[in-house]
Amino acid sequence: MNPSSSAYYDESRMFHGSLSRIMGTRFDLVLTGAGREHSARIWEHIQYELESLDHMLNRFDPDSEISVINNRAGNSPVQVSHEMWSILQECRDYHQKTFGLFDITLSDFSRVTFHEKEHSVHFLQPGLSFDLGGYAKGYAMKKVVNILKTNNVENCFVDFGLSAIFALGHHPYGDSWKVSIENPFHKGEILGEIALKNSALSTSGNTPNYAGHIVNPLNRKWNREKRLVCVESDDPVDAEVLTTAWIAADTILKEKLLTQFDTKQILDYNL
Predict the structure, then answer these.
(1) pLDDT in tens, 34-71
(2) Which of 1, 24, 34, 199 is nearest to 16 (CA)?
(3) How large is the greatest C-alpha to C-alpha distance in the chain, in angstroms?
(4) Are 15 and 6 in contact (CB under 8 A)?
(5) What number of other Cβ atoms are within 10 A of residue 226's Cβ?
(6) Does residue 167 fall inside a structural domain?
(7) What is d(CA 97, CA 171) in angstroms, rounded to the nearest whole number?
(8) DSSP structure string for 190-242
(9) 143 C-beta neighbours (distance < 10 Å), count
(10) Does residue 142 belong to any structural domain of this protein?
(11) Alpha carbon 104 to chain centroid distance?
(12) CA 246/CA 270 separation, integer angstroms
């Protein structure tokens, strides 16, 4: 179990839940307008879902399903769960939709064979593996939002370390949820503010402590620019995928990406 905490504030009817280590980062949820017991049940459901996804998608967990695939699929086809199969098919679709800029192999997606009948995966190139880092938080966020909507939650703010956010409804003292974009290279410098309402925001880029982690799969070059990209979209997965693809894209590919994704806005900061 990952360390978690929660608190309910009766006067404001506000619930705050937090997981300090999940999906490679911290997860926070602020829910307003729901009762104490209802909030607790929702939080329990969300925790269970996130724990399950973390065990399936975390490549740093040697027992996770993605790790089993990475360790064995180079030798022979590996049968995967129904949900993992759906995830991998969606990632393959995004690979095509982004003209190859989103690639969970970080190398060559064409060297992966999918066997439809058995729901199995086989790597045709030595050393190939899957990395769902540019997808998993968006996928998890989408499932969290579905849980919230199923439980008739109208106002809630959810984030994975502030790099993946979904704002449902509005803040108790406003008509939206306000998010400030901070310059990672100059602490305290605010680059802009976004008013979110029923939409997702994904942020990606290099930081002083986390640079050169985005690779362009088309030329195998790592991006080390001081840049920050923010994508707002109705779909958390679209937002997550597009931030990664956008950083790797040149001007021509950016124009093509805009024809494939329905976004509310894209902010690209050169720092």
Answers:
(1) 999 999 999 999 999 999 999 999 999 999 999 999 99
(2) 34
(3) 59
(4) yes
(5) 15
(6) no
(7) 34
(8) EEEEEEESSEEEEEEE-BTTB-S-EEETTTTEEE---EEEEEEES-HHHHHHH
(9) 15
(10) no
(11) 13
(12) 13
Looking at residue 1, its pLDDT comes to: 63
**Which structure tokens are listed for 184?**
């990672």
Residue-range definition of the domain harbouring residue 94: 65-123
**Mean pLDDT estimate for the chain:** 94
Please report whether residue 95 resides in a domain: yes
| Counted domains in the chain | 1
Task: Note the residue count of the chain.
Answer: 271
Residue listed under structure tokens 């993605």? 66
Q: How many helices (H) and strands (E) does the chain have?
A: 6, 15
Residue 172 lies in a domain: no
Helix 36-57, helix 65-72: angle, nearest 10: 10
The radius of gyration of the chain's CA atoms, rounded to the nearest angstrom, is 19
Question: Distance of CA 220 to CAs 110, 245, 250, 269, Å?
Answer: 15, 13, 14, 23
